[in-house]
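Recall the central idea of this unit: under ordinary conditions, the amino acid sequence of a chain determines the structure it adopts. In this exercise we apply that idea directly, starting from the sequence alone.
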Amino acid sequence: MARLLKCQYCGKKDVFTEETMVKHENVTSTGKTQNKYFHKECYEPFKKEQAKKQAESKRLDKLVQMAGSIHELEKSESGSYILPRMWYHTIQDWRNGTQRYTMNFKKKYKKGIPYQVLTEAYKQSQDAIKWSKLNKNFDSVKSEIRYGMAIVNNKIPDAMKKLKQEKMLKEKNEKTEKDRIEMMELERDVNYKDVKKDSEDMTDILGDW
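Accordingly, the structure predicted from this sequence is:
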């Protein structure tokens, strides 16, 4: 009897055949290779989700680098800045849109402020944070970071506005460039037709002369 394999995307079991399922090789952090199986119709959605998760992870890494460099924190052996757990908890609440201190709050997932906006908010806050480091007597690194996050929180609307404006400008420039290319192609087609018509007219006039 053929062994049933579980699709890692939908969770349903099926008999593995080349027509129905795909084998995906996954390399673990220890270097071992694990085989995972997916229905063919589930494999593309799985890859899209993986790509989104990888993009999110890279954006979080960029945010960590920005915050760590502003606060001048120590780095781990991997080269990443070491931030306290409370920082990650707050960042995840911001990213997910979780309002932790309200009645009957529920955890959400990626429904809040994008990491790009938080990174821009930190960028806009760096002068104020560095000023506070020099002029306020924080009793711990956590106190300094907590104060910095309050500054960042106030900068989020400005950061969001800036990124929206940049996105709109980018889309406008892309549309202008697309329209320019289409116009050039149209003019080229018109010129080609004019040259072809002139050539045909000259052939009619001169014949084999």
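The helical segments are 40-71, 85-96, 115-135, 141-206.
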